[in-house]
Amino acid sequence: MAQRHPDPTDTPAVPVTGDALAGYLRARATEFLRALRLHRETGGQSGGAPARARAGAGGVVGGTEESVDAARALRRSARRISGSLHTFRPLLDPDWSEEMRPELAWLSGTLGLEHAYEARLERLLLALQRLSGAAVLPGRTAAPAAVGPGGGPDRPAATAERSALTVGAAKAGALLERQLTLARTRAHSTALQALGSSRFHAVADKVALLASEVPLAPAAPTTALHTLARAAEERLTDAVAALPLVTAGHPYNAEALVHGLSPEPSPHPQDGPWHQVRLLLRLHRYAHEVLHGTGTAAPVDLRLLTAGQALNRHRDASEAAAAAAQAARTPRITPATAYALGVLHADQRHEVEASRFTFQQAWQKHTANAP
Amino acid sequence: MAQRHPDPTDTPAVPVTGDALAGYLRARATEFLRALRLHRETGGQSGGAPARARAGAGGVVGGTEESVDAARALRRSARRISGSLHTFRPLLDPDWSEEMRPELAWLSGTLGLEHAYEARLERLLLALQRLSGAAVLPGRTAAPAAVGPGGGPDRPAATAERSALTVGAAKAGALLERQLTLARTRAHSTALQALGSSRFHAVADKVALLASEVPLAPAAPTTALHTLARAAEERLTDAVAALPLVTAGHPYNAEALVHGLSPEPSPHPQDGPWHQVRLLLRLHRYAHEVLHGTGTAAPVDLRLLTAGQALNRHRDASEAAAAAAQAARTPRITPATAYALGVLHADQRHEVEASRFTFQQAWQKHTANAP
Lengths: 371, 371
Prior knowledge:
- Two copies of one chain form a homodimer.
- The first copy, chain A, has helices spanning 18-41, 65-87, 94-132, 156-196, 198-212, 224-241, 245-248, 272-292, 302-327, 335-369.
- By secondary structure, chain A is mainly α.
- Chain A has two domains: 16-142 and 169-211, no CATH class; 223-371.
- In chain A, helix 1 packs antiparallel against helix 2 and helix 3 crosses helix 5.
- The two termini of chain A are 21 Å apart.
- Mean pLDDT of chain A is 83; it is low at 1-15, 46-62 and 135-162.
- At the A-B interface, helix 3, helix 4 and helix 10 of A face helix 3, helix 4 and helix 10 of B.
């Protein structure tokens, strides 16, 4: 029993060599260039603050819907190239790889920020709407309900209290709208500047080279691809094993809102390990794509997909909760606004908890099904 | 198939007659009188505002712990007599029964209020403590944590924000303490007055008579006891069937916080059917006690017990959430206080949702096991 970890990937059913990695990287680079061309053609760099009418389209540096899609495709390719450089580093020219990675990370980070603020605002406004049972979307005045939930007319006093709180939800919405739109506008400008910068042009040139030739390291062993993919999976498995999954699997464990009134404005430290798993799951998925392809015929583990989506929701809710808490620190807000933001914060923290539960369920099914 | 509901209780394994009801009522009446005597002996009517030191003991009109227990026993017996009069009404003298029921309801309601306010305050302070990770119990100043959740020292700005919010939780706790203690003191006075009133003495006299002789209706059929108990169970089953149990069985359905920002200060109307089931479940349990006895040998359905406890928690959390929302309407509170109350409200609404989930699970197991 000297060999403790007999590695099944030493004898893959279908031999996969460095060619698979090169092919994958070339394809992603080509996608990147296509997205960049489309983005330029569709007026992506026309500038100006994002119009509200485009909200929800998910767009960076937007003009038309096509340019929004193009920007998303840019980020998508950049993430995959960057992730593959990380996982399969020993197979690639080290100098080139070390230089390329941080530039791609900068690019997808910069391009993603505007969309992130936009999605966060939308999530928070939808939650406010759900919580108050009234439209609090910007531009509309929240109309106080004429009749109580009980169905009957109310005492005048109750009606006065009611409109005060309805105003609270509307004011909270307006405050979040103001703050997140400002952040989004700034992110928009930053992204515009980035796309016009010499730094960006240098990345684009490197990706253009990558589309024709992938700088593989000399003499990498044939089996290394599988071994490295397996290592990425093990990093994921280890990180998941360190998560409090037993707690997460108990519905309504009330864990996510512990310290909900603790005054740390940044996302909860307890969220960190989950964010980390989210990134490792993504790397694992990209490595899987390298080995098995990205086409419709490629095998997809739906449970792993569900798990990944749960972690995306976890991240989004975590950041939305932090944004609500942050907004509550704005000077001179009314108590009604602050109350609404408190309810909203707790609501989003429960979304965090719900996402962990969903992840736990999906992961459990995934591992039960694993070979 | 003319007989659609073949009633198994028509041929009970052990024949139970009106005697069982009379015995049950006599026993409860005796308990009532014993509790009343104990309550008087232990200084229950010594008066004065409840001292904080007794908080958590659950007591009405308290002095010693014994008098608190005695008051609880009084309520317990009154509820059981009242419930049995309701369920088995056709077996009892109608005039006597009609006169007795509202008086017992008045008594247990009046005696229960002080305890309810006390328990509500304790629930809310514990929740605040859990949410803020700091002691916010009255009399203590909430100490701002010296070190951030991340473990490292913080920027001065973050520390300033932090103490602001810790103060928010502490202020929210102090506000709730003030409001609920006032309500409790009033309930205490009301209970004291009630226990000294001629109305109470009239009830006590009636219960004393009941302890020796139960006014049964003449010529009630032997099988009626089982039939009436079955009818109480059917009322429960029908009410449960009308609950949104499918939704409740999905963890994190986010149903309880819908309209969490709707401005109705009273408990959510969606809670009503659950409260109703809680009462029907209690009546069913009392009817079961009449038929099968109350001793340690009596069969107890643990799942039904769990279901009942879940509904108690549902009621408590619902009322605590309403108290937090009500406190947020206090004029001139700070935004930090209002924010903390908003988080607290949402937290308790999630307790409501969690209780429904627990009930759904217990009820499902109960019915799966039913004959």
